[in-house]
Fold each of these.
Amino acid sequence: MYNKGFIKTWRKEINSDIWLMPPLYHRVWSFLLVYVEWKPVVFPTAKGFGIHVNPGQKITSLNDIARKVSWTEYGVEKTPNRKTIKCILDWLAANGMIELESNRYGTYLNICNWCKYQLQQDEVVTPDGRCAGLSTGHINKKSTFGTKEVKKKEAPPPQQELLKLYHSHCYKLPKVLKMTPARKTALTSRWIGDKERQNLKWWEKFFQRVGESQFLTGNNDRGWKADFSWILKQENFYKILEGKYDNNNGQPSQQEILEQIKRAEDKLNGKFENTAAKP
């Protein structure tokens, strides 16, 4: 299926972020370039209707991708799990390399700017960036995947402004010295996850909430402090929003607990002293 034709690889790729990621990221990316459709096709469904798929697009599954990027190491077949593949695809989507949508029909993939970089010599590009003669929908447009519409790629978050807010309100936490690919992916996921979160005022209140948390800023039994990466992890992020680390969460702070223990010890010591003083 993949032994005919060719794809173009651009030299600037070695200066891109994917070149700094673990080897499996580039393996998946290279596979997707040869795996997507190179001409318009109709994807059949169990319900009898077809889905039009354009060049640079593919309807597949996470398991299928995992099997096809597997390799053999010392005679043992190595196959990445679904979670690993999903993480890589999310990273590619966050970095504007693919559009990704999953639902009960499967996983839809769209290589961004496919026609711009994989155009054949006898093809032409229309003013809006599409390959002439192909149906619309595969270059930064809305595409139909089953009965669900694939959303247009969201604008990336303003990283520098968000970092300023973090350092301003979370000054007790470790400073961010470098926005690694993993941090960029997490920040983008939290930013685009909800329309309400796509403004700086929301994030100012969020970072202020983190900075005011005694537990997150080191007032705990281990002296542990959260950091930028920790608070952006999905599970931790929603725990913060749910108020788990707020100071007034119905639970006494560590300082209050220590004071209660000290008062109890003082009261108990005073009782023993009074008992010992009796004849």
Amino acid sequence: MRRLNIVLAFICFIAMVAGCSVGGAGKTLTAAQVLDAFSRSGFELSEAKELHPDSVFKKELNGVKPDTYLVGGSQLLSIYVYESSRGPAKGIKDFERQTAAADVTSYDLYFVANILHFYVTDVSDRDERVARAVEGLRMSMEKQEEWLTKEIESITLTCQPNFGKKPCENRKFADSSAVERFRQAVHRAEKMPGMLNYVAEYLMTVTFHDLTKRDFHLSLGTDRNQSGLLVPLFDTTQGYEIPVEEANRLRELLGEDGI
């Protein structure tokens, strides 16, 4: 009966988190984004160094081994990072197959996009911040989709003092041709792997047609052979590379083409 309750809880949670595949097959989260979401929820995870190597929550599932952490110093959290959002469903089936004859301790099971979480806890000891962290990941995916697809009304650039460049001027663009250049740059920007180490040139505020706003860090420089960098402030662990061609069109618009 305990195992049945776990499965039902899993189905209900997936239904709540956007119908079994948050974000679709093409959208993924990184391990750094997961850890950042837990940090924003109020606690840091510590590495589970003494976990028994034969633990069912350390098993390879669907070809992926987990990163294991302790929540509150004692509760186990196993995180599987797959290449696509199809990975967790296959990982769950693999887990069920490997533990079919085992007496598995109580756990909560979550997935968002390509991330699968096992949170080993009793109901009475459950830390609700884990659920909040997962919800934060879901919201991050929704916001990512929003800023990539919504129509832009205007762009405001605010100079950042630590970039170390020539004197900078705050700018606002509302005419259709200028907004289109920024729109193309945003839509063609590609997700970058790994951790970021950057200095922001501008704070870019995008105002959409529905008057909602999103803030980003934008860095272009003057080198016409270099791509640009766009970082959404709702998730500063994830950068987007602006192709050289689009970065140069923005440099020309700003009068910073290096010529």
